[in-house]
Design goal:
Blueprint lengths: L2 H9 L3 E5 L1 E3 L8 E3 L11 H4 L6 E8 L6 E8 L2 H6 L9 E6 L17 E3 L3 E4 H4 L6 E3 L14 H5 L3 E7 L19 E9 L4 E11 L1
Amino acid sequence: MPMENHMNILVERTDSLLYYAESSLSNEQGKGWIGGNAPDFFDDRDDLIHEGNLKYYFYLSLVHPFKPESMISLFIPEDYEEYLENNMYPNCSIKVIEHPMSTESVKDMFTNPGLIKHAISDGALSNDEKAMDQSFLIKLGGNPRLIQNEDYYYTKLKDESFSFLFQVDEDGYPETLLQDDYSYPFGFGSLYIFAKIGTDEIQNPVAGFWQFS
């Protein structure tokens, strides 16, 4: 990704990258995948994800747009009440892990039974204002499209110099993503990922908060 795009997307925030979920008919993974098995990087790393009695499901993996040798993977607690109560940084229970590029594991130890695997498309560059009115699975950079625009979501993040990196929006789920009789993991909402963003690097991605309508 050229440096001027990095500036427009994450510094000036005039543009954003939009990603979509696509039916995954083969083992292709595009720029990542949602649902299915976790990356094989996590095959022997249960202790990195599960915490005591708190078990996690794999949610999605996205190829890092500015570090193509890396991915960002998200895990959500199996217990909905756990992450409903802990929905905001620094106590957000959603796990965000940057790790080396990996393929999907053949093991299903983290697989969410409610999600059907879909590939994530290449990111399409969009003017950020126009992006606000579109449907998308992931919006990276620009400004977050919020469901509740309340300052308290940001207080601790701003204090610690975190900036918006991307959001995952359930409005962008295709009908084929959810198994019958399963609910949207975020209540037809959106999850917001933040990071420490400099002019030439992005560090320490974290779950900022999630909201539902």
